[in-house]
Design goal:
Shape: globular
Strand order of the largest sheet: 1-4-5-8
Number of helices: 13
Radius of gyration: 23 Å
Largest sheet: 4 strands, mixed
Distance between the termini: 55 Å
Order of helices and strands: HHHHHHHHEEEEEEEEHEEHHHH
Strand content: 5-15%
Length: 432
C-alpha cells in the first residue's frame, strides 16, 4: 500500500522525462517538487514500526511533518546565510522537540530516549543542522542537568531549557580535541565563587545559547581528576563568543569559540561534584554518540529519498537509470546498509533505556552510521550526475553535512579504539 501511494504521488507530481530543451534549473525545480511529495511516503521503514510505542510514533510523525512543512522551505536560505531562522528554534520549542526526555514537572515532554532519537533522525532527513540543535539539547544539556544537577539547579534551568533557551556544551579547546582532558581552561576558587579563564573551540550553539556547560580544571595538580563542570550564564561579565566558523557543512548551526576572561560563577554553579566532570563527559558523550548516529542515519535516508524517485524517472538509452542492472545492485546494497545502520542505532538506544551496557553499541552505531552517510551521499551524487553536483539540488548539502559525522563527539579512529577495548575485555575475561 505504501509503495502504491508513493507511485501515485510521484506520477501526479512529476513529468515523465526531462525534455531536451528544458533548462537545468527548471528540471531541478520540477524534480524537487516531485520528490517532496514522494519522499515522505518512501522514507518510513514500516517493518520497524511495530517496535515503537505510540508516543514514539507520535514524535516521529510530528517531527517529520515539522521538517517537511516548516524546515524544508528554509534549508537553502539558512545554509547560504549560515544562520538558523528564528522560526525554527521557536517551532522546535513549541513542539517539545528540545525537551523530549525532561519530566513534565520541569516543563518537558517526559518521553523516551528513543523518542528523542526519532526526532533527530526525522529532522536530519531534511536538514541535519536543525537536527543538531535537537541532539545537543536532548542528549547532552538537559540530561546532564537532570541527572547531575541539584534540585535547585533543575528547578532553575530545566524550565528555561524546555521553554525558550538553548544550551551549549563546552569541552574542546585548541590543544585538547580527542585528548579532551589536556584542557587549559582553569577555575580558581575565590571565596564562595570560582573564577574561570580559558577559551573553548568548536562550540556548537555558541552565540545562540544562553546556558553553557563549561569544563574547567579546578585542581590542575590532580590532572584530569581536577576537571569540573560549571553552569555558566552567557550574561556574566567576561563571557564572550568569538567569530563564527565558516564551515564546510552544518552551516546553519552556529559554531564558534567561547572565551572566558575572569568569569565569576558562584560555587552553586558547579554541576555534580568538583573533580568528577571527566567521568560525566565520558558518560554523556557515549549517549550523545547515539544521537549523532541517528543524525547521520537521517541524513543518509534523506539523501536516498530525494534521489531514488529521480533515477526512476530520468531516462537514458530508452529506459530509466534505475533499470540498469549496475545501478540496481548499487542501490540495493545502500538500502541494506541503511537498514543495518537503523537497527544498530535503535538497538543502542534500547540498551541505554534498559540500563544495559551500551558503550560499545554507541561507538559502533556512530562509526557505522557516519560511514554509511558518507557512502550514501556520494553514491547519490553519482546517480544524479550533473544535477547532483549543483547546490540547487539537496544532495550536495547532504554531502557537505555528512563529513562532520566522522569527527565530532568522537572521531572514527577514537571510536575504533573504544570498540577494540570492549572486544579485548571480553576475550581477556575468557582467559581466566
Amino acid at each position: 500500500m505504501l509503495a502504491a501511494r508513493a507511485r501515485v504521488a510521484l506520477a501526479r507530481a512529476s513529468v515523465s522525462v526531462w525534455p531536451a530543451r528544458t533548462s537545468l534549473a527548471a528540471a531541478q525545480k520540477t524534480c524537487v517538487r516531485a520528490l517532496s511529495s514522494s519522499a515522505r511516503l518512501l522514507s518510513q521503514p514500516p517493518s520497524l514500526s511495530g517496535g515503537l510505542t505510540e508516543d514514539e510514533l507520535h514524535f516521529r510523525e510530528a517531527a517529520a511533518r515539522f521538517a517537511r512543512e516548516q524546515v524544508a522551505p528554509l534549508v537553502k536560505e539558512m545554509d547560504e546565510n549560515q544562520q538558523m531562522d528564528s522560526s525554527i528554534k521557536r517551532g522546535m520549542f513549541e513542539h517539545g522537540f528540545l525537551s523530549v526526555e525532561v519530566p513534565h514537572e520541569y516543563g518537558g515532554a517526559g518521553a523516551s530516549f528513543t523518542s528523542g532519537l526519532l526526532v533527530i533522525e526525522e529532522l536530519a532527513k531534511v536538514d541535519p543542522s536543525v537536527s543538531l540543535m535537537a541532539d545537543l539539547q536532548n542528549t547532552l544539556i538537559t540530561q546532564m542537568i537532570l541527572q547531575l544537577g541539584s534540585e535547585e539547579q533543575r528547578r532553575r534551568y530545566l524550565p528555561r531549557l524546555c521553554a525558550d533557551t538553548l544550551g551549549s556544551f563546552c569541552l574542546s579547546e585548541a590543544g585538547s580535541g580527542s585528548d579532551a582532558f589536556a584542557m587549559k581552561t582553569r577555575a580558581v576558587r575565590d571565596g564562595d565563587h570560582y573564577v574561570l579563564n580559558g577559551e573553548k573551540c568548536w562550540i556548537s550553539n555558541a552565540g545562540e545559547a544562553d546556558i553553557y556547560l563549561v569544563m574547567a580544571n579546578a585542581n590542575p595538580e590532580a590532572g584530569y581528576k581536577g576537571i569540573t563542570c560549571f553552569i555558566v550564564d552567557s550574561s556574566l561579565p567576561g563571557f564572550s563568543v568569538g567569530k563564527k566558523e565558516n564551515k564546510l557543512g552544518m552551516r546553519a548551526s552556529a559554531t564558534a569559540p567561547v572565551i572566558l576572561e575572569d568569569v565569576r560563577v558562584p560555587c552553586s554553579a558547579v554541576l555534580g561534584e568538583e573533580g568528577q566532570a571527566y567521568k560525566y563527559a565520558i558518560e554523556h558523550l557515549n549517549t550523545g554518540r547515539i544521537g549523532i548516529a541517528a543524525q547521520m542515519l537521517g541524513l543518509a535516508q534523506g539523501a536516498f529519498d530525494v534521489t531514488l524517485p529521480y533515477i526512476h524517472q530520468r531516462k537514458q538509452f530508452g529506459q530509466s537509470i534505475a533499470q540498469f542492472q549496475g545501478i540496481k545492485l548499487q542501490y540495493a546494497r545502500i538500502a541494506t546498509e541503511l537498514r543495518a545502520a537503523r537497527l544498530m542505532v535503535y538497538e543502542a538506544a534500547r540498551r541505554k533505556e534498559a540500563g544495559l551496557p551500551f558503550v560499545e553499541d554507541a561507538a559502533m552505531a556512530k562509526l557505522y552510521a557516519s560511514e554509511v552517510a558518507e557512502k550514501v551521499a556520494s553514491c547519490c551524487i553519482n546517480w544524479l550526475g550533473g544535477v547532483g553536483f549543483t547546490n540547487d539540488f539537496p544532495v550536495a548539502k547532504f554531502y557537505r553535512d555528512c563529513k562532520v559525522g566522522a569527527i565530532y563527539e568522537g572521531t572514527s579512529n577514537m571510536l575504533l579504539l573504544t570498540i577494540s577495548k570492549q572486544v579485548d575485555a571480553k576475550y581477556d575475561n575468557m582467559k581466566h
